[in-house]
Amino acid sequence: PTRGERARLRALLSRPAADAARGLIGCVLVRRVRGRTLAARIVEVEGYLGAGDPAAHVYRGRTPRTEPLFGPPGTLYVYFVYGMHHCLNLAVDGPGVAGCVLVRAAEPLPGSGMPPLACRGPAKLCRALSIDTRLSGRRLFERGAPLTLREGRPPRRVAVSSRVGIRRAASWPLRFYDPESAAVSALSRAGISSGTAQRRRKP
Q1: Fewer beta carbons below 10 Å: N end or C end of the chain?
Q2: How far apart are CA 42 and CA 110, in angstroms?
Q3: CA-based diameter of the chain, in Å?
Q4: pTM for the predicted model, two decimal places
Q5: Residue in 9, 21, 5, 2 with CA at minimum distance from that of residue 200
């Protein structure tokens, strides 16, 4: 990214998790791996609010695994779940807050060589972009970053719903997605609202 683009994206990632999550819809993940460049437009995310969010990994305290969430905005937090899947998160918000955004789905851009639905769902996204725990702690804008972020085409509107697959704080409206994208995960595509209600915050 250019210097100005990088500054705008850093500013976005420095915002509270709900705001950062919504603003990330339409941004582009760029992965450089084994001599290839893969790019995919983010179409679905979830926000996690840090220590005050019962669904967040840091709710029970700081651990070596969650240490990347306490790094600068744009630090990658990748975790392994169910013994088979990786999930990509981006640290957001201010110092010590440990907010993050889970990237749930993305649309491969033309020329990336990936099928249209290769990144539909957090596990498939990590598999398609060769993302695993070895990237946890790296930063989006470090020199030679293996994964970086670019500005992209914003959606015409952003839909909002409760988060998927969690038990605690399950009703909080912190899932944001592009309702016109076929790459959005199949679960709960209808959402609870869009337009003005997308500005709602934690109850």
Answers
A1: C
A2: 14
A3: 46
A4: 0.90
A5: 21
For residue 201, what are the CA distances in angstroms to 58, 89, 107, 130? Answer: 19, 20, 27, 33
Q: Enumerate helices (H) and strands (E) in the chain, giving the number of each.
A: 3, 9
Task: Tell the burial category of 187 from Cβ atoms under 10 Å away from its Cβ (0-12, 13-18, 19+).
Answer: exposed
Q: What is the pLDDT along the chain (203 residues), one digit of tens a residue?
A: 789 999 999 999 999 999 999 999 999 999 999 889 999 999 999 999 999 999 999 998 899 999 999 999 999 999 998 778 999 999 999 888 999 999 999 999 999 999 999 999 999 999 999 999 999 999 999 999 999 999 999 999 999 999 998 899 999 999 999 999 999 996 555 554 444 333 333 32
